[in-house]
Amino acid sequence: MTDIQKLIRAVEQADSSARLLEAVERLAAAQAKEATPTLIAALGYNNPGAAVAAVDGLVKIGEAAVQPLLELIDDYNYGARAWAIRALAGIGDPRALNTLLEAAKTDFSLSVRRASARGLGTLRWHELPQEQRHLHQAEALEALQLACQDPEWVVRYAAVTGLEALAIAQPNLTPQIITQLEHIAQTDVDLAVRTRVLLAQQQLQKSLVVSNN
After folding, report:
1. Could you tell me the pTM of the whole model?
2. Shared domain check, 177 and 107
3. What integer is the mean pLDDT of 183-208?
4. Among 55, 110, 177, 209, which residue has the least CB neighbours within 10 Å?
5. Is 187 exposed, middle or buried (CB count within 10 Å of its CB: 0-12, 13-18, 19+)?
6. Has residue 101 got a pLDDT over 90?
7. What is the count of structural domains for the chain?
């Protein structure tokens, strides 16, 4: 039995919440793609700590975890689906774009909307064909603009983070995003969101200076 198989067996045989959490954390730390099915299964356990550890492990595994996670999205277990979306947002694979767009716009969980908004800004856009990239980035911008109107301030905060990352990834969108940030700075009722806007504006100004030199 290999070391990874032993770690997987430990998760499967855990007989308490504490032992399950420890086993999932150890399996996640191994960063082995063979652990993907077990880590995905852990997303559906009634153990938030183990789910957080599993998400971290899946993000570290990266590309190999994307398709299995996308297949889980259609599962009826909402809890597992929500954790899966968080993992997809953290990985940044463009294959998750449609899932993140829908979640950012419509999911009832503020934590899922927050993760999706942040993830939309940090997708690995360079992996998309050039002819598709601008169209999908426009879709992401539209979703992030909608998220900027979310009733929950943490979602709006994440949307600002996403807008900043998107502007850096696609300079053609920078003027439009700067205008959006100025509007948020003038209208958002939450100080934390306005402060995050100020940071985004400063970062984008630095980015513009670098690109013009």
Report:
1. 0.87
2. yes
3. 94
4. 209
5. exposed
6. yes
7. 2
